[in-house]
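dude i think i finally got it to work??
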Amino acid sequence: MKLTLIKPDTFGAVASTLCVIHCVATPFIFIAHTCAADGCETSPVWWKSLDYIFLIVSFFAVLQSTKNTSKSFMKPLLWLSWFSLFFLIVNEKIQLLSLPETVTYVVALVLAALHIYNLKFCQCKTDKCCVNNG
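look at this
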């Protein structure tokens, strides 16, 4: 967790990108492995839990990034993208709405892009520039 405090945007961008890779890889891995032996409905609990781990990690990355950004517009954008990702992942688990998987990929990539933008253009040079301090 110390890494999310020191470099939250780098950590958030990496976590969001890994989330997309996890989401894209899942069907290919389990079609090749699981369907051959047990049917397509089974997958290890640890693999299903990765979604929630990515959400928790990205929550702390967004929390820290919003504390350190120098641009006021970044805070709502980061939180909107995180809550959208949260909704989409929970929705996928409980199947409330039928949404294409690409929506989740796009939202996760937007979150990664926001972290990268924030890292490149919105860093505080002093303690006085940050949104929460001023």
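Residues 8-121 form one domain.
im so relieved honestly
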